[in-house]
Design goal:
The complex is a heterodimer of chains A (200) and B (239). By secondary structure, chain A is mainly beta. Chain A is built from three helices and eleven strands; from the N terminus they run βββαββαββββββα. In chain A, strands 1, 4, 5, 8, 9 and 10 form a six-stranded mixed beta sheet that branches. A five-stranded mixed beta sheet of chain A has the order 3-2-11-6-7. The longest helix of chain A is centred in the middle third of the chain and has 7 residues. By secondary structure, chain B is an alpha/beta fold. Classes of the chains: A mainly beta (200), B alpha/beta (239).
Chain lengths: 200, 239
């Protein structure tokens, strides 16, 4: 349906293609279902589970000693904004799972966060450097409202999958919905297929 | 969910920057829950499309007509078109109702505090109108932050509800009002004022916060520091 008189107004550089229904922004918005949790780095801990078995636990210091990488990527939020050319620094998920002696060729990860947020992602979507736990954004420590001290980055899926304030990862055999997935959002969330809601 | 058609039935300016758009839906949804939103999609003649999400501010009891309370945001691709171009009788594409989290599903004896910044009142209007219409006896306390007297959205209606319903209470603060005509609170809600709002209300009450990001961050941080349980705080930020 054509809306007479409606034209593209956004003058931001649009050299790259946007996923359907998205618009480009020039800053990183903050969208979260709850408050920003107050996290003490001295008490910060990242726990990795193989199903229910705790395989490895990383303090903040240990986490920073893992192989560090940079992730240059575009991001797409289900609330319709996209941001091009973001730079994240942190540890690739496969490096963390390898250090935790987990066989992660198949299945899913179920991510839990400080504050209680959860989300689910297929293992195939974090292999081959497709997913990172980031502690820096555009060369600066990640600010708490943006998920600091550390958040997941899985940018080829809608950004609700890139869980803020990550606390633990369970590698599981059978998929189960996380927070937004339980409230009617898509189980997978591919922005290029516009998988926003459960029925998409 | 498929795209639906909304016919514009009325457009009202309710402040210098905010209009209320009333739409008649072609296909009525089976149910609407207070706090839900719709996606609006606009299409240009060259095929360019833009989508945005807007909360419903009308009562969810009415499945045929829905209202959006929309602020004209600077350089807002969609909101500017809605404010400047949309006319009564025009049609737009809408999808919804959506969102099953930032809702109020009425039960009796709920105790809720709402913190609204500007058009953050929108989903709360739906909840408050629903409470009033159904004579629900839940205790609602609204903490509403606006810029100036002219910017207070739904002022008369909300005032009326405070008189009609003893279980609805409201406190307004104005952050940029200079006039001596305003005898109420000014500036941002103080910690003291927020602490007072938490008194006389059950410690298990739910706290809803909706508004600009800075407003939501500030209020949620204060109430966390005041000891409110993290799980009892629901937020919706404009981004």
């Amino acid at each position: 349906m054509i809306n007479k008189g409606f034209n593209q107004k956004n003058n931001l550089s649009n050299k790259k293609k946007l996923p359907p229904g998205q618009y480009l922004v020039d800053y990183l918005p903050i969208l979260t279902a709850g408050p920003t949790p107050k996290i003490d780095l001295k008490l910060w801990n990242l726990e990795i589970y193989d199903n229910q078995d705790l395989m490895k636990s990383f303090t903040w210091e240990k986490f920073l000693k893992l192989p560090q990488s940079e992730f240059f990527t575009d991001i797409h939020c289900v609330t319709k904004w996209s941001l091009f050319d973001t730079v994240w620094k942190g540890v690739y998920l496969e490096d963390i799972l390898e250090k935790s002696s987990i066989n992660f060729s198949s299945g899913y990860i179920y991510v839990s966060c400080y504050g209680g947020y959860t989300t689910n992602i297929p293992i195939k979507d974090i292999n081959n450097k497709k997913g990172m736990i980031a502690h820096s954004y555009n060369s600066k420590p990640l600010e708490p409202p943006h998920g600091g001290p550390a958040r997941l980055i899985v940018p080829h899926l809608y950004f609700w999958k890139s869980a803020k304030w990550i606390k633990s990862i369970h590698v599981i055999d059978k998929d189960k919905p996380g927070f937004w997935e339980s409230y009617g959002y898509h189980m997978y969330g591919d922005p290029w297929k516009e998988q926003r809601y459960y029925s998409d | 969910m498929n795209w639906n058609i909304g016919n514009i039935e009325s457009i009202f300016s309710i402040s210098p920057r905010v209009k209320v758009f009333k739409l008649k839906l072609k296909n009525n949804p089976k149910k609407i829950i207070a706090g839900q939103y719709f996606d609006i999609r606009l299409t240009a003649e060259n095929g360019f499309q833009a989508q945005r999400s807007y909360s419903i501010s009308s009562s969810p009891k009415n499945l045929k007509f829905i209202e959006f309370t929309i602020s004209k945001s600077p350089n807002g691709e969609v909101s500017e078109y809605l404010h400047n171009n949309l006319q009564i009788g025009d049609k737009i594409e809408v999808k919804g109702p959506l969102g099953n989290y930032f809702n109020w599903i009425p039960t009796n004896n709920d105790q809720i505090i709402f913190f609204a910044g500007g058009t953050g009142i929108s989903p709360f209007m739906s909840m408050i109108r629903h409470k009033i219409e159904t004579q629900n006896n839940s205790k609602f306390k609204l903490m509403f932050s606006s810029r100036t007297i002219k910017d207070i959205l739904f002022f008369d209606e909300l005032n009326k509800y405070t008189i009609l319903d003893p279980s609805f209470d409201m406190k307004i603060t104005l952050t940029r009002e200079k006039s001596s005509l305003w005898k109420g609170l000014t500036g941002r809600f103080s910690i003291n004022e927020i602490e007072k709002s938490l008194h006389n209300i059950d410690k298990n009450s739910v706290n809803y916060i909706c508004g600009p990001t800075n407003f939501v961050e500030k209020i949620s941080s204060i109430i966390l520091d005041l000891g409110v349980n993290y799980d009892l705080i629901k937020t919706e930020r404009f981004g």
